[in-house]
């Protein structure tokens, strides 16, 4: 009888250990699924939040972000140009592709950056820029990302007691903008728009975000 009890105890112990290991493996799998990896171990995320010059500079200030590319997304016109996008008839919004290291910064933090760097209740624009081409969109690439976005959007709406303007779209296509739009704030620091709009917006974001998550200024 004692041997039977001992055997049952050992069987139960191994069953619990296997269950715990399975749960741990499932959690790791879910965490990995949130990121959309590239071949070099980096990942991509896509956001639209007003003028892409501003958004580019904001994400480039975040630790773990390797590169930000300006472009267009969310619409239905192929090969959109800046001029066409500005008419508001392409359906596209000025957007950015964020290439980041998921070992340093995760998707959840990038969504936090998104909401902390804008007026989340402004519809079809940010600051002085108005029109559907400047509307706010967060693009998700899998169900895990969608759930993160919706939860954070709902929490912010509850906190502000207001409707959050950001649209939530499945990612389909990102069209890279013209060369002269890339690294715009860094290359044109004295441009009137950069001085009057982009830099103040970046500085407002930095006051709201943890310094530990920002790159050190040189």
Automatic annotation (TrEMBL):
Question: What Gene Ontology molecular function terms does this protein carry?
Answer: L-methionine:thioredoxin-disulfide S-oxidoreductase activity; peptide-methionine (S)-S-oxide reductase activity
Q: Which reaction does this enzyme catalyse, per its entry?
A: L-methionyl-[protein] + [thioredoxin]-disulfide + H2O = L-methionyl-(S)-S-oxide-[protein] + [thioredoxin]-dithiol; [thioredoxin]-disulfide + L-methionine + H2O = L-methionine (S)-S-oxide + [thioredoxin]-dithiol
The annotated active site, in chain numbering, is 51
Q: Which PROSITE patterns match?
A: PROKAR_LIPOPROTEIN
Under Enzyme Commission nomenclature, its number is: 1.8.4.11
Give every Peptide methionine sulphoxide reductase MsrA domain span: 45-193
- Tell me which UniProt keywords the record has, alphabetically: Oxidoreductase, Signal
Q: Which Pfam families match?
A: PMSR
InterPro entries, alphabetically? Met_Sox_Rdtase_MsrA_dom, Met_Sox_Rdtase_MsrA_sf
Would you say which domain of life the source belongs to? Bacteria
State the Gene3D superfamilies in the record: Peptide methionine sulphoxide reductase MsrA
Signal peptide residues are 1-20
Stated role: Has an important function as a repair enzyme for proteins that have been inactivated by oxidation. Catalyzes the reversible oxidation-reduction of methionine sulfoxide in proteins to methionine.
**What family, per the record?**
Belongs to the MsrA Met sulfoxide reductase family.
What name does the UniProt record give this protein?
Peptide methionine sulfoxide reductase MsrA
């Amino acid at each position: 009888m004692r041997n039977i009890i001992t055997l049952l105890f050992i069987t139960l112990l191994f069953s619990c250990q296997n269950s715990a290991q399975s749960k741990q493996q499932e959690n790791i799998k879910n965490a990995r699924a949130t990121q959309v990896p590239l071949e070099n171990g980096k990942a991509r995320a896509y956001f639209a939040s007003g003028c892409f010059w501003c958004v580019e500079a904001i994400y480039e200030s975040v630790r773990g972000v390797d590169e930000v590319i300006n472009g267009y997304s969310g619409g239905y016109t192929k090969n959109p140009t800046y001029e066409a996008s500005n008419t508001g008839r392409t359906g596209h919004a000025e957007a950015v592709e964020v290439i980041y290291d998921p070992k340093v910064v995760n998707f959840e933090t990038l969504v936090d950056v998104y909401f902390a760097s804008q007026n989340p209740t402004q519809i079809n624009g940010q600051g002085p820029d108005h029109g559907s081409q400047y509307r706010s969109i967060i693009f998700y690439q899998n169900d895990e990302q969608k759930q993160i976005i919706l939860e954070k959007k709902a929490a912010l709406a509850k906190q502000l007691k207001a409707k959050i303007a950001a649209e939530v779209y499945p990612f389909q296509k990102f069209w890279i903008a013209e060369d002269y739009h890339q690294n715009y704030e860094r290359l044109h620091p004295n441009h009137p728009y950069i001085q009057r709009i982009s830099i103040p917006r970046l500085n407002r974001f930095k006051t709201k975000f943890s310094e530990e998550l920002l790159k050190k200024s040189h």
